[in-house]
Write a structure and sequence with these properties.
By secondary structure, the chain is α+β, with helices and mostly antiparallel strands. It has helices at 2-12, 61-76, 91-99, 130-135, and strands at 16-20, 27-35, 46-52, 81-86, 103-104, 110-111, 122-129. It is 30% helix and 28% strand. The chain starts with a helix and ends in a 5-residue tail after the last helix.
Length: 140
């Protein structure tokens, strides 16, 4: 997995980064930016994503880390728009997207081609562009 992360950073100048708790140095998860690597109506696109250990949920780590990734994407990488996606019942991730100022794009909802047919296949799409991110003050 680390090799994949490093290859993305080498190719695009961005990718996924490890997230550690400042006080302890404990690895909590990862966040960052990835080019969407599957066919969908909204592709080409760059996605902000996050994954954290359950013990880190509800403490603001995902919002803080994803906000830093968005700032990097817009201010350093010069991206125009960044998307995020999740299954409709992933209320915690949807709340992070809302706190980041991302807007739901119901017309962009899709069946994820890399997920088997079943309850996890349908995904909702959120978007934010650089002007909207800058307008909100660049922080969650």
């Amino acid at each position: 997995m680390v090799d994949r992360f490093e290859a993305g950073i080498e190719a695009d100048g961005f990718g996924l980064w490890a997230v550690e708790e400042r006080s302890s140095g404990v690895l909590l998860g990862a966040t960052g930016l990835n080019r969407v690597g599957f066919a969908a109506p909204f592709v080409p696109a760059v996605e902000v994503g996050w994954r954290f250990v359950r013990a880190a949920w509800g403490q603001g780590f995902a919002t803080e880390a994803a906000g830093a990734a968005l700032s990097f994407g817009f201010d350093v990488a010069g991206l125009d728009e960044i998307v995020a996606m999740a299954v409709p019942h992933n209320e915690r991730s949807l709340a992070v997207m809302d706190r980041l100022g991302m807007q739901r794009d119901p017309d962009g909802d899709f069946d994820h081609p890399r997920v088997p047919v079943g309850p996890l296949r349908r995904h909702v799409l959120y978007r934010i562009d650089a002007p909207a991110w800058r307008e909100r003050g660049r922080s969650p």
